[in-house]
Design a protein that fits this description.
Helix content is 13%, strand content 34%. It has 2 helices and 10 strands. The chain has 164 residues and is mainly beta. The strands form 2 sheets. Strands 1, 3, 4, 6, 7, 8 and 10 form a 7-stranded mixed β-sheet that branches.
Length: 164
């Protein structure tokens, strides 16, 4: 009986390895712009976030695999940067590394008062590809609207924040 359980466990591990490289979830990182600099090896995304309505609070930027099951799902983000809002001319720049070239989506939230809670009437947000968001989809576009291709180097995108 023990040997059967061990054999089944090894088959499960082998199946996971054969399925391809796993992506780590939930890594909080600093905003290290050097990772996207001239000597950067990638893969990474250089994200310009524009349109901050105030110079207060915190901004959170998260990367996700571009799959329906992972996109905006709790705990499924790959990397997260949380930092104080310090825009220059209403913009901030972030370097978001990703595990490998492929399809990803990025979500940004500006928590104006920095309380860690979403206040739809005050806080802003945006997504890669700048899809339209509305109260009808609860401000959450489908992955097909936010997904973009990241190559082996540094991919540049701009996200425009929107406020209700």
């Amino acid at each position: 009986m023990v040997m059967v359980k061990v054999a089944m466990g090894l088959m499960s591990v082998a199946a996971m390895i054969a399925a391809g490289p796993a992506m780590a979830h939930g890594q909080e990182i600093s905003n290290d712009l050097a990772r996207c600099g001239a000597d950067a090896r990638g893969p990474a995304v250089l994200v310009d976030v524009r349109g901050f309505a105030a110079n207060t609070g915190k901004v959170r930027i998260q990367s996700y695999p571009a799959t329906k099951s992972a996109w905006l799902a709790k705990g499924e983000w790959l990397n997260r940067i949380d930092t104080l809002v310090k825009p220059a001319n209403g913009s901030m720049r972030f370097c978001m590394p990703v595990p490998q070239p492929g399809q990803y989506g990025i979500a940004v939230r500006h928590d104006r008062d920095g309380n860690g809670k979403t206040d739809i009437s005050r806080d802003g947000g945006g997504f890669s590809n700048n899809p339209s968001i509305s109260i009808f989809n609860l401000g959450k576009p489908g992955v097909e609207k936010a997904a973009f291709q990241v190559g082996p180097g540094v991919t540049k995108i701009t996200i425009n924040l929107k406020y209700m």
